[in-house]
Amino acid sequence: MFENTSEVIGAENVLKKGGWRIRVMGPPPEIRTGCDLVIEFPLVSELEIVRTLEEAEITPLQVVAVSDGLLEPVNVFFTTDYGEFLMVQAANMKITVDKRDLTVVNISGGGCPDVPYLAAQMVGRRLDQAPEPRSIGHTLCGYALQLAFEEITRKCLP
Amino acid sequence: MSAVVGTVPDQDFPLVCGNVRVSEQNLFIDNHCVAVNRGTPALLATAAKACAFFGADPPMAYLAGDIGGGGGSRKVYAYLEQILGQCRYESITFHYIQPDVDWHNRVLFAVEDMHPRPMLIADAGFMYAAKMSGQAAAYAVFTPDMGELAFLADPEAPHPFYTRGFIFHEPHRVKELIASAYVHGNASRYLLVKGKTDIAADENGILNTVSQPVVPAMEAIGGTGDIITGLISAFTGLGKDSLTACIQASAVSRLAGKLADPDPGTRVMDIIEQIPAALKRFFEEK
Questions:
Q1: How many domains does chain B have?
Q2: φ, ψ for residue B271 (rounded to 5)?
Q3: ipTM for the complex?
């Protein structure tokens, strides 16, 4: 568990780059404080995982052993084809691009304060030139937008 | 008079409290200026235009800059906890704020000190916090979309991000989801479920629907939900009951969408600019 979602996103980046097979999940109710995410890893790897994170200056608040109760983040996408525009939805977040020039034209949905910020940074830029939500987002909504961004990129950029 | 509580996507925007006005593409609070693109500024611009149409005072805004780190949201929460007891509003709308159960509850305690108690409306992040706190019944209106309705219906889900037992894009399940939200105490007195058909409901089920005019591109445009919530905020601030406010807000926002003739790349301000014309057409037709 981490101080905030930004640290979870940072930890995910560090650990995936290091080749660790980890998952970003939701914590069980007894350890929730708000809109939380946690990193799930095999307990046997705790020492190495924590050392890797500390070297990256992303120190977890705590490591908790759980056998079940972690919530599965969304992994289903919905796509709407408007002809010249394509919209992909992941959870509560939607991203729409103009298929003619791959410009991000709209971002909608969500409720966390980084959504309008992410939209301001991404709308008007080409998919391959827009900042990834994982690099500037902070919340679960930002994380959901990252998934939608990856999916629409997969569909639009070979 | 209504109040609107939220954030703007500018890290350096200070905590401000004041009446808003709209000029061109910008929203002004005192001497502070913010672009009307989406989020709480879009809600406020809509509410301000609606209030101006009726010759009423614009909403009072409580805002701070927050790009997701939560610092600005905590400033707003803390300020509200201090001052709400001395304020008088017909309605308060809570919007893009970092969900935080503890801070939510402290603000709700402050609301309980207000006389008379205002009508409470929650959308976006604050609706998530209201549900997570178990205090949803303290609110007059939530304005979820279908995914957020599923989140309200799921007693365990802490955020719409989690798939636990709920599925998006299943409008045929809307009655079931509404019922579940009320059974588990996770719904406000009225729900306005935003979608291809907007649905007003309470604990007894669906009360009213609004499905015309149909503007499919609205789903892709960021801020269209903020328009509906802004209209509800304005209407309740003018003294309308919350159910009437929901139904009229849905109809007027659809009219504004039709007048703007948008495509999925349209910016929400182009629709907000049509609010006065949509209000004129709606209330003249009535």
A1: 1
A2: -80, -40
A3: 0.90
Strand-strand pairing, A103-109 and A93-98: antiparallel
Q: Which domain holds residue B204?
A: 2-285
The domain ranges of chain A are: 5-56, 77-156
Residue A7, token pair as written in the block:
């640290």
Residue to test with chain A: of B67, B152, B214, most A Cβ within 10 A? B67
- Measured CA to CA, the distance from residue A20 to residue A24 in angstroms comes to 12
Distance of CA B269 to the CA centre of its chain: 16
Residue with tokens 């983040």: A73
Whether A137 and A147 have beta carbons less than 8 Å apart is answered as: no
- pLDDT, position B150: 87
Residue A72 has its nearest CB partner, among B132, B159, B164, at B164
State how far the Cα of A51 lies from the Cα of B270, in Å rounded to an integer: 51
CA-based nearest distance B30→chain A, Å: 22
Looking at the complex, report in whole angstroms how far the Cα of residue B96 sits from the nearest Cα belonging to chain A.
5
Nearest to B38 among A84, A89, A119 (CB): A119
Per-residue pLDDT, averaged over B51-63, amounts to 95
Closest CA to B216 of B195, B230, B231: B195
Return the closest-CA partner of residue B111 out of B123, B119, B100. B119
